[in-house]
Amino acid sequence: MKVKEMEVEQRPREKALRYGLESLSDLELVALILQSGNKNRSVFETVVRQL
Question: pTM value?
C-alpha cells in the first residue's frame, strides 16, 4: 500500500509527530527514513524486501 493511500493518522510521519517515534513499528520507522519507494514498489514493499 502506498503511503498516500493510507489514512492520514496512520501514515508514519503523522503517526510519529502525533504519538512519538516510539509508536512506530520497525517497518514504519525504516519507511519514514527512506521516505519514498520507486515506480515499481511502495516504500513499504521496498522495506520488506530489505528486512
Answer: 0.74
